[in-house]
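user: Kindly work through both lines:
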Amino acid sequence: MDRLPDEELLLCFRSGNEQAFSTLVQRYLPMLKGEVAHFCGQTLEAEDLSQEALLGLLAAAKTYRTDGGAAFSTYARTCVRRKLIDAVRRVAKQDGQEDPAWTLSSIEEADPADLFFSKEETKAFEKRLRAVLTNLEYQVLMRYLSASSHDEIARSLGVSRKSVDNALWRAKRKLATAFMTV
């Protein structure tokens, strides 16, 4: 599986092969570490940033389209960077700090959210996520990936902010365990 091109790995991943995502993680680990290094020393710990980077790669694997005009590596870097920027902004906002000016200049490409993939791929991916996560963890993660704040997620689900924090922490741990083991 290590020798497959990214696009074939993505097809394998989207058809239920979790090993394919693990291979992508290993392949892009240097990029993930590099992006995390750019944000270290900000408001988040390196471990939290690493989890955010992994979620960015997961979002890239979920939403990449070959007809989007960019290589997967470029798209993945953009998704990871945006995820890290969003995390730093969210924490800065929660701490009452102003939005760091460097985050605005870090965005280089079109919004990855504008790219969509087929309903079949979405359903298969959601099925894999639902198999790993509890319903609350899944709902929290989906809202989190949509850039909702912890308070917004808590209100929309009718739970406490602490429940949201805990569910997101568990979801990240489960995803890291499910997809990062090779």
